[in-house]
Amino acid sequence: MKYRLLLFISVITVVISCKEPEARRPKQHGTTNFYHEVVKKNKRLNALEKKYLEERIAHDTVRQYLTSANGYWYTYVKKDTLNAESPKLEDVVQIIYNIADIDGNIIYENEERTYKIDKEDFIPALQDGIKLMKIGETITFVIPSYSAFGVTGDGNKIAVNQPIQSTLTLIDIKSKKEE
């Protein structure tokens, strides 16, 4: 009797377990809407930040700021009208720059470094701005957060979504042709 019962349970278990697995319906995720909402929110924040920076620049009656096509502003501290050479792709430049908050409080003191044009990681607005410069020029850049350190900050002194300004001097250009 025991063996028949065990045999019966075993047969039933085998029959049930041999059934084809049923496909599950895909989960409905709300990620598309979430991303659209995040993008909308960031656009609103960027527009507010841009308006704020434009108002700050308008109140600076001492300097004349130019607007770049990439969304930052710059003003010449020292301009060279004679030298025509600007850095080009893969040129190596020697620069001195600092980083300050929008009120001019220094965050990072002057730092000297070399930079290979468009081949190294650097602050996006400054990557573009260096290409406007000539040897000996000094430019102050006002940079919105999305062209600086963005939604992450630098993990140290620069906060999340913090606009910055940077004064940069182009010391030298070593053309890739010279190497």
Q: Can you walk through the features of this model?
A:
The chain has helices at residues 2-17, 31-59, 124-130, and strands spanning 66-67, 73-78, 92-101, 106-116, 138-143, 164-174. With 179 residues, the chain is α+β, with helices and mostly antiparallel strands. The chain has a 6-stranded antiparallel β-sheet, covered by helices on one side. A hairpin with a 4-residue loop joins strand 3 and strand 4. The model has no long low-confidence stretch (mean pLDDT 88).
The overall pLDDT, averaged over residues, is 88
- Following the backbone from N to C, one meets helices and strands in this order, namely HHEEEEHEE
| End-to-end Cα distance | 94 Å
Strand order of the largest sheet: 1-2-5-6-3-4
Can you give the helix content as a percent range?
25-40%
Radius of gyration over all CA atoms, rounded:
29 Å
Assess the beta-strand content as a share of residues.
Answer: 25-35%
User: In DSSP terms, counting alpha (H) and pi (I) runs of 4 or more, how many helices?
Assistant: 3
Quaternary = single chain
Give the overall form.
elongated
Unreliable segments (pLDDT under 50, ≥5 consecutive)?
Answer: none
Which structural class do you get from the secondary structure elements?
Answer: alpha+beta
Count of DSSP strands = 6
Largest sheet: 6 strands, antiparallel
Write the layout of secondary structure elements.
Blueprint: H1 2-17, H2 31-59, E1 66-67, E2 73-78, E3 92-101, E4 106-116, H3 124-130, E5 138-143, E6 164-174
Antiparallel strand pairs: 1-2, 2-5, 3-4, 3-6, 5-6
